[in-house]
Design goal:
The complex is a heterodimer. By secondary structure, chain A is an all-beta fold. Helix content of chain A is about 0%, strand content about 50%. Chain A contains no helices and 11 strands. In chain A, about 40% of the residues are buried. The interface between A and B is medium-sized, with 21 and 23 residues.
């Protein structure tokens, strides 16, 4: 069974940094693309970033490009999102999502999310 | 970026009724359209991908149709657990985008 467990969320001041982690199990982590998707409080879903299965190719939403970095640690089966220069509009629940075997852009399995609050 | 507009925003129906949810794209997404269900306090769950393919374990009462810019999610007979929020998502072009959601509520 696929399991994804996010951690690392919390309260951070504007301009600060935070690193999110997603512990993966139940599948061959290195064989799948992984995504981060976020949801502002009471709002809809916003795709943030993808890491391809090769571990090096990435893509980002314009809203986070240059500020966020996605990466993984294969031996630890962990996906990460390093967030810097945080803004209040980055506040929300951050989900990691495993891509489908059909396409990297289909979010097949999701973690329960970790809440990031950017506020002074 | 491709904008997805979902309608209605709120759909009020009774258990056992048929639900029809719409998703319209600002430009063609071919058949690269998915639907997700989100229950309160939970992560989204993939229901349908590439317009009409049900994800693993999804009941047959959920079906999808459409092409180009107009898509529909149909729930043939609403069960109590179906009264939640649904999002569409396109994967035709970067950035990946979601619709604003449709909430199906009990009438």
């Amino acid at each position: 069974e696929v399991q994804l467990l996010e951690s690392g969320g919390g309260l951070v001041q504007p301009g600060g940094s935070l690193r999110l982690s997603c512990a993966a199990s139940g599948f061959i982590f290195s064989s799948y693309a992984m995504n981060w998707v976020r949801q502002a409080p009471g709002k809809g879903l916003e795709w943030v970033s993808v890491l391809y299965s090769d571990g090096s190719n990435t893509n980002y939403a314009d809203s986070v490009k240059g500020r966020f970095t996605i990466s993984r640690d294969v031996p630890k089966n962990t996906l990460s999102l390093q967030m810097s220069s945080l803004r209040p509009e980055d506040t929300g629940v951050y989900y990691c999502a495993k891509a489908s075997t059909v396409a990297i852009t289909i979010f097949e399995s999701w973690g329960q999310g970790t809440l990031v609050t950017v506020s002074s | 970026e491709i904008v997805l507009t979902q309608s209605p925003v709120i759909l009020s129906l009774s258990p056992g009724e048929r639900a029809t949810l719409s998703c319209r794209a600002s430009q063609s997404v071919s058949n690269y359209l998915a639907w997700y269900q989100q229950k309160p306090g939970q992560a989204p769950r993939l229901l349908i991908y590439d317009t009409s393919n049900r994800a693993t374990g999804i009941p047959s009462r959920f079906s999808g149709s459409g092409s180009g810019t107009d898509f529909t999610l149909t729930i043939s007979s609403l069960e109590p657990e179906d009264f939640v929020v649904y999002y569409c998502q396109q994967r035709s072009k970067w950035p990946l985008t979601f619709g604003g959601g449709t909430k199906v509520e009990i009438k």
